[in-house]
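Researcher: Hi, I'm a grad student and pretty new to this. My advisor asked me to get structures for two proteins we've been looking at. I'm not sure of the right format, so I'll just paste the first sequence and hope you can take it from there.
Model: That works fine. Here's the first sequence with its structure tokens right after it:
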Amino acid sequence: MTRQLQELGDHVAASLPQDVIATAVLQGELVVTVRREAVARVLGFLRDDPRCLFKLLADVCGVDYPDRAERFEIVYNLLSLKLNHRIRVKLAVDEEQAVPSVVSVYSAAGWYEREAWDLFGVYFSDHPDLRRLLTDYGFEGHPLRKDFPLTGYVEVRYDEDQKRVIYEPVRLTQEFRSFDFLSPWEGMNHVLPGDEKAKEEKP
């Protein structure tokens, strides 16, 4: 299988030499890294080429690497039902750049791209309806970015006096939270199994 995937990767790279940056077989799956501007052309080739036939777009997702100049990777997972192959197509993008939408190639990409925009803040140009998908109206920020605080920026709760849901700024930032949970190993009055074998150090 690895040899077949390598041959397929070589075929894709030879067919699109200006668009494919690198190919590799990782953990039994073909990974193709492409130029951001060429993603729609590459996916169209992978869908229509007789040696590829990746007719199914299984997922589009984002990955955040804050230390990189182009901090985000957009990953497209494709499946060929006829040839029983999978392929992963990756591209790099920074916070200011836009990724061309591939809705014209795979209509299923519409919701996946909305999700990536909502959670990572990656903009997809020429998307027919790029709106938030999973977060609430008026939500600020993109919660799957590594620099997004775990507590978020807004607290949502139901106020019994006002009889409605209210939104308040988070009062305690994540950096200053302290968790004073009692350790399960503290406060025990009996010897736990195995502790009788421990020797006390002599002063």
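Researcher: Oh nice, that was easy. Here's the second one.
Model: And its structure:
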Amino acid sequence: MNKADTAFILAAAGLVLLMTPGLALFYGGMVRSKNVLGTIMQSLFMIALITIEWVYLGYSMSFGPDVGGFIGDLSWFALNGVTNAPSPDYATTIPQTVFMVYQCMFAVITPALITGAFAERVRFVPFTIFSVLWAILVYNPVCHWIWGKGGWLGAMGVMDFAGGLVVHATCGAAALAGVLVIGARRGYGKSSFMPHNLPMTMLGTGLLWFGWFGFNGGSALAADEVAATAFVATHFGGMAGMFMWVVMEWSTQGKATTLGAASGAIAGLATITPTAGFVGPNSAIIIGLLGGCICFIAVSSKRKLRLDDSLDVVGIHGVGGILGSLCLGIFATTGVNPGGVNGMFYGNSSQLLTQAIGVVVVSVYAFVVSYILFKVLHATLGLRVSDEAEVLGLDSSEHSETAYNN
């Protein structure tokens, strides 16, 4: 066991945890004032809800002994046998408990990301039931397929350094399913849905960017040169995404906005995530620029498609995660990470096809299962708030609170 590696991953786990309240502020600032607490609560409560699920089911299903390449068995139920000794299969220089809690933070933020798609119109209790079921039926299996020892997509050669597929593609597919089932907000396309507190969103952006260094850098699972590569690539990808989004906004609308800068940064960070430990700095900048450009186009298209993805989860996280996963098949090089792969630009065009297979499998699976879950819960429990509650706002109707006392 290496003490430096252990300290590094403990710090990284704390950074990834910080991303969830950061996300709550990022989303909370973009909704109307009557929905800010309800929106924050949907993200914040995932820390408790999904951690419980992770302890009793999630960790064992995701990383436990393999069953047919599709799921881990339940031999680690309630963390049975998970000790402070290093695991022979995962992160062999740190305690398995540290690896477990680091991965827990990924599981926590993924369903929280989905909430932005249907912000301002979903009931709290049915949403929490969806989140637990989604973690069990979508996140845990996909995590095992790619990151678990014996997982079938990982065995096929699909690579994902820090969650482009496991986190961003799954949440993006689920977000699209949710928008289709739940429908648009009252007055969508007719009324204005302006963010009520952009400084709050900018604070959330800063916390997310800061936490992303633990998200990507910590995915090296050691304090080594791969972590350094991922750290640099993370910052370069985020800043390039911000730069390109602002340029696109200015060139098409004549003005650049703070919301656009924040959105571009998150788009660049999401796009660099699957490739962060596999590419050099110049490739990271190119990937970030692509993320800013393509995600801007995707978000700009939602009105034409009449999709009320309230806070752009599909256009930023879904599209960014998929784009970054494909970029891995182009820009990755073993010259940066000997434990990785070479992409198309380094003589291995087959890796792009492998990544494309991973994208299709994960996206389709996550969408179909999420759609079924949304449909069943909507029909039985009623996911959507009533018209009266939507007009009143989630803060009052769901939580009997108000964020601002006039």
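Researcher: Is there anything I should tell my advisor about the second?
Model: You could mention this: The beta strands are 66-67, 71-72.
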